[in-house]
Amino acid sequence: MRARRDSSAVDGMPGSSDHPYNRLDEFTGDWMVPITMSLGTMHNSLSGFGCRNGATAGWDNGVDVTEPPLPPSGNFVRARVDGDSWDSPFGRFFVTDIRAPFADDQVTDSWDFIINASESGTVSMTFDLEALGQYDMPEGFHLTATVNGQTFDINEDHTITFNYSSDAQVIVHLVATLSSLSAGSDNSALPTEYSIVSSYPNPFNPTTTIRFGIPEAADMKMLVYNTLGEQVMTLIDGRVEAGYHDVKFDASLLSSGMYFIEANVVGKMNEVKRIVLIR
To answer: Is 10 helix (H, G, I), strand (E, B) or coil?
Structure first.
């Protein structure tokens, strides 16, 4: 019988860095995003997801954390993974799902968390993207969450809220994309659409890196506006080659608040991304 893992905590994975974005050739493939959640006065910080060398798509002893027993009070809120197909000796449900690192031809993966709570109400769920800073994570990480038919951009707002009812199953579907993996593989995989992939960090102080992709060379403008609609900076104004690109936005001379990045390619792209400067 293998030793059972303590379900009260998630061990940290190897790798540390002073910078959230690092060189692609230094990236080990390990990363994890912790999840905290609340419903009324109930709180939970046991869940998380990510990748780790040596892990698999199923149950991994010492890596995937089993769901702990219910508290004596009977009051709880949880995000859990259905491991019915994992063939684990420690039960069906888990609070973490750690997979193998992305394959050479893979830039995205998805995770499903089932919400389980002792009562109905409004659930708040926070994804700690700042935790990525302890790994050699390259730029281009983007996370979305879809629940109750609504999709949230977690890079823009790390906390989402949604209604939970004990009468119906509520699943949070997460999609993580690391676009720099395709950009770093001799540029063989070009973007299939025009898009602002991510801005990291966000919120930021005083700099953030905007990553975008265009499938073909084009004349492009990338401008920054404040909440009054006033242009405060020009990031790009000229010819850009096909592929994924990074542009740094330095807001040292700007005041705290919300700003908007607008990327425009005539007839092809007109996208706006919200960023927040916090002093």
So the answer is: coil
Distant-in-sequence, close-in-space partners of 181: CB < 8 Å, separation ≥ 6: 24, 102, 106, 107, 138, 140
Q: What share of the chain is helix, strand, coil (3-state, %, to 5)?
A: 5, 50, 45
Q: Of 177, 173, 207, which is closest to residue 193 (Cα–Cα)? A: 177
Same domain, 116 and 201: no
Is 10 inside any structural domain? no
Give the pair of three-digit tokens for residue 169: 């199953």
Picking from 181, 215, 243, the residue at the C-terminal end of a domain is: 181
- Name beta bridge partners: 162: 123
Q: What is the pTM of this model?
A: 0.61
Going by C-alpha positions, the residue among 40, 45, 46 that lies closest to residue 118 is 40
Q: 38 falls in which pLDDT band (50, 70, 90)?
A: very high
In terms of pLDDT, which residue wins out, 226 or 14? 226
Three-class secondary structure assignment of 25-77: HHCCCCEEEEEEEEECCEEEEEEEEEECCCCCCCCCCCCCCECCCCCCCCCCE
Residues 127 and 258 in one domain: no
Q: Which residue segment(s) compose the domain that 122 sits in?
A: 24-181
